[in-house]
Amino acid sequence: MVVKVGVEKRERFKYISHRMKATAKSPANIAFIKYWGRRDKTLNIPENSSLSCNLNNLSTITTVEFSEKYKKDDILIDGKRDDIEVERIISHLDKIRELAKIDLKAKVVSKNSFPNSSGLASSASGFSALALAGSTAAGIKLSEKQLSMLARLGSGSASRSIPDGFVEWNKGISHETSFAKSIYPADYWDLSIIVTIITKDKKDVKNTIGHTMALASPFYPTRLQGIDEKIKKMKKAIKNKDLKTFGEILEAECLNFISIHLTSTPYIIYWEPATIKIMKLCRKLRNEGVEVYFTMDAGPQPVLYCEPRNTKKIVNRLKKEVKELKKVVLNKPHHGARIVNKHLF
Ligand code: DP6
């Protein structure tokens, strides 16, 4: 009897160790219509629906391995063990363990292709990669909808990095109804997306705090009132590949969202002087006949949208007129999170 249990245990472990490691690559997404403010903090149920597009050159690769050889969770992000998100990552692993009904500890190694926590959607690519790699490593097969729900529990915007291309996250009213869906594939509209990096510093207010503070802005109820109509108009502009209408809504929404930061208590200012220079340069270029529009997340780095034929001209002007510019990353709309074969360890 004792021997039999031992064999069974060894065999089970062999099977488990075979399937207990997986790697996923997931894109960052930049929202056209922003998620800002939550009606449920634990489940990350947002106050409003949002729209975004995945980016091909800003991504996170994450390998997760669950094993009896780990005595505690070991999290390495961009080579460091002291990332500010370690606690949130462990609590996300707990959710995956609960779903898979396992209690093994994990090693997680994650690499970002861009500076994390600097207002460039690293939590979106990070938690979507973790949800896919983690659930696969734990041996559970989830549908796209379930993966989007799981990613949302890690970070709201991560729900939008699971489906392909242009994505809508329907706010829903519960865990089961709040998830993201693709509205158009990545190749539907050949947009050029220029991500400007003007600082690599980590931002001092985490989004999770910003979401809470937003509710204290006197403008917040007005923002929410107009948002469904704005989403409708934005979806129509995407459908028609109408860059002018798309861009006008994009900028107005970005400034509306920023007005909430400025009027929250306490207020938040994410911008650097170079942020404003780039915003003004967009208008200047448009006056010269080059169509380009900005948005940005809760951070100082503007993200510009234009037709591919204008990319070079715009990048040259950025380099010439914005001395603080550290880097530009050129992007196209991209598919969502995928399993990849090459592990990071
Ligand atoms: C400004 O998804 O980072 O990027 O749910 O607390 O992780 P948590 O917040 P997060 O918030 C994203 C806010 C935003 C807008 C957006 O991506 O829609």
Any overview of this molecule?
The chain has helices spanning 2-19, 86-100, 122-137, 144-154, 207-214, 220-225, 227-239, 243-262, 273-287, 311-321, and strands at residues 21-33, 38-40, 45-46, 50-67, 74-77, 105-112, 166-170, 179-184, 192-197, 292-295, 303-306, 327-331, 338-340. Helix 3 crosses helix 4 (144-154). Helix content is 39%, strand content 23%. The chain contains ten helices and 13 strands. The model is unreliable at 1-17 (pLDDT under 50). With 345 residues, the chain is an alpha+beta fold. The strands form three sheets. Strands 1, 4, 5, 6, 7, 8 and 13 form a seven-stranded mixed beta sheet that branches. It has a four-stranded antiparallel beta sheet with strand order 10-11-9-12. A hairpin with an 8-residue loop joins strand 7 (166-170) and strand 8. Ligand DP6 is lined by residues 31, 34-36, 44, 50, 121, 123, 155-157, 207-208, 211, 297-298.
